[in-house]
Structures are given as C-alpha cells and as structure tokens.
Amino acid sequence: MKTCNLIQFYRNKKIKFPVSEWLETGLLLCFTGGFLDAYTYLVRGGVFANAQTGNIILLALGLASGAGISALRYLIPVLLFMTGVFLSELLLHRAARGKNFSSHACIVLAEIVILTLITATDFLPFAVPDMAVNALVSFAAAIQYDNFRRLEGMPFATAFCTGNLRSATEHIFRSSVKREKRAAISALKYLCTILAFVAGVCAGYFAINAFPDASGCALLFAAIPLTSVFVFLLAEYLLSRNRRAVRALSPAEYPKARELILKTFTQYVAPDYEKEGIDAFRSFLYEKTEEKLFLGVYEDRKLKGVLITERDKSHICAFFVECGQQGKGYGGMLMREFLKQTNSVTVNASRYGKQIYEKFGFDALSEEQKKDGLIFTPMKYEVPTEKCN
C-alpha cells in the first residue's frame, strides 16, 4: 500500500514539475557542487570550482600583494566558468530548435565524463597542472549551474549558498510575520539544499583523505549522485515519449501552436464573428508574444492543445484543442494543470467556449459583450478560500 502511494506521489509530482526541478534532483546536484569546491580547494591550489566571487577576490588580492603571474591562476576557473555557461546556453538554444533529447540529461552526462577524465589523470606517467584540472572542474560546474536553476518552481543555485540562504530567510520571514503557510515549506526546501551542499563539502574532505596518493579517484564519488540524476532524467524522457504531458512551449514551437489555434478557431468560433472580429483575433495571435506564456498538451510528442496566458497568469488569452480531438481529455488535462498554478484568472469566453469554462469552475462576470467584432462573455475563476490555505 505504501509503495502504491509513493508511486502515485511521484506521478503527481511529475505532472506538476519536470524531474530537473525536483527537490531530490536539486539536493543531489548541491551535494556535487559542494564536493567539487572541496576538491579544487584542498587538492588543486586553493581555488573554488563554483564560487567565482572567491576566485576573483583571491585574484585581486594576489595582484595587489605583488604575487604577479602566480595570482593569474585564479583567472583560469573564472574564464572556464564563463565558457561553460556560454556553451550551456548554446546547447539549450539548439535543443529548443531541434527538439532533441533533454539538454539537462546531456549536461549531466557531460559532467560525469569530465569527472572521469580528471580521475584518469592520476594514472598518467606525468603530472597534469592544477590549472588544467581546475579549468575542467569549473567548466563542469558552470554547465550544471546554468542548466539547473529552478527548484519546484522557485529559483535556486546548485553551486552557491548565498542566494539559497537569502531565499530561505525571506520565506522564513513570510512564514513567521506574514503567516504564509506555504512559505515555511519553501524555506525548508532551501535549507535542505544548503545542508546538501555542506554534506558534499564534508564528503569531499573525507574522500580526499581516503585517497591521499590518488585524489582524483575521490571525484568518482561525486559522479555517483550525478549518475542518479542522469537515470532520473533518462527515465522521464523514456516514459514521456508515448504518454500525455503538459509543458511550456518554446518560441520555436509557437508557429505550430498558432496553426492549431487558427484551424480550431476557424471551424468552431469564427462562424459567430464578422470579418472585423476574425481579423482582430488573427492579429492578437502575433502581437506582444514576449508578454505571453504558451502552454501545450502533448501525446506521443504531438501537440494536441494550446493555452495562452499572460506572463503573470492573470488572464487566459486563448484555449483550444486540435480539431477532431475534443472530448479525449486533452483540454481538461491542460486546463487543470494551468489552474494549479494560479489562484485567480479571467477569460473572455466565446459562445463556443463559455460552457467549457463553466465546467472548470469559471463564473460569468457580466452579460455577453461585443468589442472590435469579437463576441465574448467575461468570466473569472477563483480558488475557494479553504483551498488556498
């Protein structure tokens, strides 16, 4: 019974957040971040793999004290960190355009390969300079940091503690002073990431002492949590290929979404409109795209429905399911997932859509109106007070 409940818990969690944002994933990555900092600081010349602020301070102090060229070793991890972030953003850009395998999984796999290569340097007949090793570790840390920036809907960092500590304190304030119940849970999540980072530093210290003559072998312990993350991401990808899923669309997918909307609009909504209204609707689809959020429901990686909302999720701009696919649960899944993300939202419902919105709990705010050739009924959805708390 407990196993069934656990499976259902993670199924629900998968619908709400991608695996890359799970708390479990964040803890494993924070552990790795702390481990890498311990390794480079204790073994590779006292630099930090993640904390580039520390490296910049050490660089400035070295130059100021007259250390000269020796101080420039702190510049290497900074430059490689920047390179890692740049290439990470490039991979995300390419993945969005080509709809390739999850960039997060590719990033984790690349990090595992880099750590394995560094371990192999301990068995070479010659010593590899610390600067070269630090460059590789900083590169790995950068691509991890840049690709994993959200923790169950909240911003966070896998490589630093300062931002997470600030966020934890902010949510403690909200919980204790403003009496926001969800804030306490958020604060606890942030504190857990900090503890995971500390655990990684401690693990790095003990692993390095366990292999005094082959410290690179200690990095294999950092690869263990990364391998777990890769398995989670791979499982997510394999399981979602032939199942329904709701997710935000990338700009590259907007044309396909507009095509779906216009086809359904033309068949079901346009007959009630005059030419002015049809032209107004078509214009709306292409205006101020950067201010809107596109959500889609997929099955077998095929787009079945689209919901467009304002960025702050206060107003639904469009909600359509592909022609011929109505009644199969696509719209319901898409709308329910969206409503989980907001406590209050409005919509101007067409005659065709009014009854559909009523099924989801929307209430009419006034009688049917006509503006710019568009015929609609203003409606609003609000989460009951008891559910908000």
Short description:
The chain is α+β, with helices and mostly antiparallel strands and 389 residues long. It is built from 14 helices and 10 strands.
Protein architecture, described:
The chain is 58% helix and 13% strand. It is an alpha+beta fold. Helix 3 runs antiparallel to helix 4, helix 5 runs antiparallel to helix 9 and helix 7 runs antiparallel to helix 8. The longest helix has 30 residues. About 1% of the residues have low confidence.
Question: Can you lay out the helices and strands and say which pair or pack?
Answer:
Layout: H1 2-16, H2 23-43, H3 52-64, H4 75-98, H5 103-120, H6 130-147, E1 150-151, E2 154-155, H7 162-176, H8 181-210, H9 219-240, E3 245-248, H10 254-269, H11 275-286, E4 292-299, E5 302-310, E6 315-321, H12 330-339, E7 344-349, H13 351-359, E8 363-364, E9 369-371, E10 374-382, H14 385-388
Parallel strand pairs: 6-7
Antiparallel strand pairs: 1-2, 3-4, 4-5, 5-6, 7-10, 8-10, 9-10
Low-pLDDT stretches are 96-100
Helix content: 55-70%
Radius of gyration: 25 Å
The percentage of residues in β strands lies in 5-15%
From the spread of the alpha carbons, the general shape counts as elongated
Major sheet size, sense and barrel closure = 8 strands, mixed
Mean pLDDT across all amino acids: 82
Structural class: alpha+beta
List SSEs in N-to-C order: HHHHHHEEHHHEHHEEEHEHEEEH
Separate helix tally: 14
Number-wise, the strands total 10
Rounded to the nearest angstrom, the distance between the terminal CA atoms is 28 Å
